[in-house]
């Protein structure tokens, strides 16, 4: 299987842009997963287009704007070739532990102007509400986002970490093109209601962390013992303490399937996510992130792996056996509101 062949394309949602069937999550370029080599990161960005990966995903909270700024030269050089997605809604402060959720219309307008400026563009292709604050009605927040579409500052709207009922409510205010939720062999709570609602509405699913933040690739097995510094995985319950040891044991079926395909464990994890499209009847465009060209090409090659029914059955029980939450504080996730 060649790593240079371009991946297939798909329409994002009922009336969205045409993108590669796998996208790229840029978060780790700026922070959260340890130090970054900027030269290697820029080379990785160039590899996205070589592989046919055209959906590039960032957010104003990544590096407190630094991620968008870092992407700007790449965006300027390839504006017509990529679909640019960014997000608003998570507010940070000088307190590194603080995370506020802001969805009020005035904040949204300020946020989009900041993202447009940092990215160096006149229009954002896909603009997500990064997290939902239930205190702000969708009529207000999505209504404000719809105004940005009318003004030509945004082309399509997205949501992240919402329930099926919330997606339906938001979609009634303005069509939602994509829903971004954590979805992987280790994290399937999106299937509780969001996936079914998205399928019914013609909304694409954009799974983030489809590789379980690297855990599913085997790149680390115990955050406490292997990771250092400001790595976010040191704070996540399923990757630390006894949970990490118990969860690492769940990867054996993934390795078994990988061996049968001559593939890596990460490729099997991505192939499983891609095949959720057929299983649930909707468009699925996962956005794995990496800072290495070789890993980017490896990830893209996973789109050409098809798992058999027996292999899918072997992988099916994994998520139900995972111990530990996705975040130390789950209050801002859809799972907390189901």
How would you characterize the overall build of this protein?
- The structure is a single chain.
- The longest helix has 15 residues, at about 105-120.
- The chain has about 350 residues and is an alpha/beta fold.
- The chain contains 14 helices and 11 strands.
- β6 and β7 form a beta hairpin.
- α3 (about 105-120) packs parallel to α4.
- Helices cover about 40% and strands about 15% of the residues.
Primary descriptors:
seven-stranded parallel β-sheet, 338 residues, alpha/beta, two-stranded antiparallel sheet
Task: Indicate the topology.
Layout: E1 9-11, E2 18-20, E3 24-25, H1 38-51, E4 55-57, H2 66-77, E5 83-88, E6 90-91, E7 100-101, H3 105-119, E8 124-129, H4 138-150, E9 154-160, H5 164-173, E10 178-182, H6 194-201, E11 204-208, H7 223-226, H8 241-248, H9 252-261, H10 265-274, H11 276-280, H12 293-301, H13 309-315, H14 318-321
Parallel strand pairs: 3-4, 4-5, 5-8, 8-9, 9-10, 10-11
Antiparallel strand pairs: 1-2, 6-7
Helix pairs in contact: 1-12, 3-4, 4-5, 5-6, 9-10
């Amino acid at each position: 299987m060649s790593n240079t062949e371009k991946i297939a394309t798909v329409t994002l949602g009922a009336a969205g842009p045409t993108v590669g069937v796998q996208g790229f999550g840029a978060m780790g370029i700026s922070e959260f997963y340890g130090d970054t080599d900027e030269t290697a990161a820029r080379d990785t960005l160039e590899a996205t287009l070589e592989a046919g990966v055209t959906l590039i995903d960032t957010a104003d909270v990544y590096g407190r704007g630094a991620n968008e700024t870092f992407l700007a030269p790449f965006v300027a050089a390839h504006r017509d070739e990529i679909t640019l997605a960014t997000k608003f809604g998570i507010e940070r402060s000088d307190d590194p532990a603080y995370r506020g959720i802001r969805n009020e219309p005035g904040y949204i307008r300020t946020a989009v102007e900041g993202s447009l400026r940092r990215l160096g563009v006149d229009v954002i292709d896909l603009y997500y509400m990064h997290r939902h604050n239930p205190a702000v009605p969708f009529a207000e927040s999505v209504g404000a986002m719809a105004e940005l579409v009318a003004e030509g500052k945004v082309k399509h709207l997205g949501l992240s970490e919402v329930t099926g009922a919330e997606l339906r409510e938001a979609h009634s205010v303005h069509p939602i093109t994509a829903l971004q939720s954590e979805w992987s062999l280790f994290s399937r709570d999106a299937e509780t209601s969001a996936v079914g609602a998205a399928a019914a509405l013609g909304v694409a699913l954009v799974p983030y962390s489809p590789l379980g933040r690297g855990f599913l690739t085997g790149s680390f097995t115990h955050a406490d013992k292997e990771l250092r510094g400001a790595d976010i995985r040191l704070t996540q319950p399923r990757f630390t303490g006894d949970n990490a040891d118990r969860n690492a044991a769940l990867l054996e079926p993934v390795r078994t399937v990988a061996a049968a395909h001559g593939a890596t464990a990460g490729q099997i994890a991505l192939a499983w996510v891609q095949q959720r499209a057929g299983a649930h009847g909707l468009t699925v465009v996962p956005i794995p992130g990496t800072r290495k060209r070789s890993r980017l090409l490896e990830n893209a090659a996973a789109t050409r792996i098809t798992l058999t029914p027996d292999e899918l059955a072997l992988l099916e029980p994994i998520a139900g056996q995972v111990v530990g939450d996705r975040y130390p504080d789950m209050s801002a996730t859809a799972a907390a509101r189901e």
